[in-house]
Amino acid sequence: MRTSGPESEPRRTLNGISDVRAFFHTNTVPLYFISPTPFNLLGIDRWIRNFFYLTYFDSFEGEHPRVFVPRRRNRMDFDSMEDVCNYLLRDPETLDFIAHRGPGGKACFVMLDEATHALAREVGLEVMQPSAELRHRLGSKIVMTRLAEKAGVASVPHVIGRAGSYDELLALAHGAGLGDDLVVQCAYGDAGTTTFFVRGQRDWDRHAGDVVGQELKVMKRIRNVEVCLEGAVTRHGTVVGPAMTSLVGYPELTPYKGGWCGNDVWRGALTPEQTHTAREMVRKLGDRMRREGYRGYFEVDLLHDRDSGELYLGEVNPRLSGVSPMTNLTTEAYADMPLFLFHLLEYMDVDYELDIDEINARWERGYGGDDVWGQLMIWETSPHVELITAAPRTGVWRLDDDGRVSFARSANDWATLTEAEAFYMRIAAPGDVRCKGAELGVLVTRGHLQTKDYKLTERCRRWVEGIKGQFASTRLTPGEPIVPRLVARA
């Protein structure tokens, strides 16, 4: 006769947020975030037992108890974040760390490709993300524009096609009534490097090598600002995070004209009506992605037309992103749980019941708070190539009334910040090369970093100047090898 026991007991269903939170607080499955740095999910370890960061760069100098960095690292010139993650999955020290925590581990990656999936299988890790093929397809701006149209989400007036010359580009644009002031976007790549502004033959000649031979999204140029939201596609619907504005192209922070370099998140980022519209757009996109087989986290850039007030689709990133820390530290997240936990639920082999419509309605209403948070990505903007001899350490820093920046205390994230403080996470360290486009670090603070008319606040400028002032470096002589440090942004 068969006896009852743990194996024959029916699997318990989690009912409601409190059950889910308790589930993660008592989690026994080893969970790993594998990435160049812990940045994108920093602070999530406060919510999940047995959650670890496996990283290549030692931002915390060994002081974070949940961050593992192999001690014997070869200095590598990585071409992508995928390369870093794949290196870690081959690293003997990292594999020993995983093996020591037992079988049945699951992993999430900041970026991954087919090789990542294969390597993870070899070491016994389950990947908590959709297939590489699906993510690649949905990562196409062309594909997502078409899927968005089916979902009822509008893009800026545009046409999709190919152009081998400026005359062919104009013929495409004029056929769609777009005029001569155009934005040309390739299917893949971030907006800072694969979006081109074309207003004449000279602009076309400058960018032709990047666009000829590809299917392009050609848009009418509008006067817009970027608004970001993240979502999580679940079996019960799409959960939508808070709206935030983006900092783009500031020469104090990035050498790239269209380069993303930070965010402000607060309830007034959009009017209540615009907030509702934006959230509905993200929900519709998530629901459409679910029909395509997608589960989990994604990020949406919306374009807010400053003249008409309309909101349009910019792009969809089917993954974690550089704005994920802002999403997960909001008051909405702390009143329920971080958005990333909804992603994890889809991969934790657990049955659960959640009223996603009620959660979305509650997050849209908010909790009466007026918290403002901001983050800065600080890139090197100088053309000089130098070797870093001193760099600010990770932790809490203070901005004095006279504009001076000083180290206040060690910290693993931004949980204890006061209004005059910021959490800085080191990316560039002594021994690294300081060159144009290299990311120096990430700063998170309370309060606005950008004004209503889209300029850096004076406080933001002081933080940037103060942190950059903590670096010291010496010029490299011609011929010395350069090993760039990958950015933390996804």
UniProtKB/TrEMBL annotation:
Keywords: ATP-binding, Nucleotide-binding. SUPFAM superfamilies: Glutathione synthetase ATP-binding domain-like. It comes from the Bacteria. Residues 145-346 form the ATP-grasp domain. This is Biotin carboxylase. GO terms for molecular function: ATP binding; metal ion binding. The keyword ATP-binding applies. Signal peptide: none annotated. The lineage of its organism: Bacteria, Bacillati, Actinomycetota, Actinomycetes, Mycobacteriales.
